[in-house]
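ok, trying the design again with the full structure, not the truncated one.
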């Protein structure tokens, strides 16, 4: 019973972290709100293209916010949302693989990216496995 409570708590914490990231990008666009880094890391050379791409990034931030909300709700209603949480965990792992398309190991394995990549490629598959195993344990009771 305590393991399931720990799992619920971890899923909620993961959800809150994802919501934080989604808000940072969803409300701040490409420049972000500056919650993770300074906002002056980019200069705009083509305002029209920038604003179009900024809108797309805000949309993606909104999706990320919603993913986080599903994790929070799932942590509070685990039995109902477990399959969804497992699916989202694998989606995040697959999305993490897209980072490798950069092909610049200096960036991919830098201190700025490596922790996120490790969570995506190792942490989320482990979370999916834990969610699946907790379902099997519930079924044996």
């Amino acid at each position: 019973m305590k393991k399931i409570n720990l799992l619920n708590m971890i899923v909620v914490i993961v959800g809150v972290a994802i919501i934080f990231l989604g808000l940072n990008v969803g409300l701040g666009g490409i420049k972000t709100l500056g919650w993770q880094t300074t906002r002056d890391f980019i200069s705009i050379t083509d305002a029209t293209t920038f604003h179009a791409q900024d809108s797309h990034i805000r949309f993606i931030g909104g999706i990320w916010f919603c993913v986080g909300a599903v994790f929070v709700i799932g942590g509070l209603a685990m039995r109902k949302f477990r399959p969804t949480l497992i699916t989202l965990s694998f989606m995040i792992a697959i999305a993490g693989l897209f980072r490798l398309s950069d092909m610049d190991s200096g960036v991919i394995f830098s201190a700025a990216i490596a922790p996120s990549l490790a969570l995506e490629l190792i942490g989320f598959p482990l979370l999916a496995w834990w969610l699946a195993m907790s379902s099997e344990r519930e079924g044996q009771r």
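Keeping the full-length input from now on. The chain has a mean pLDDT of 92.
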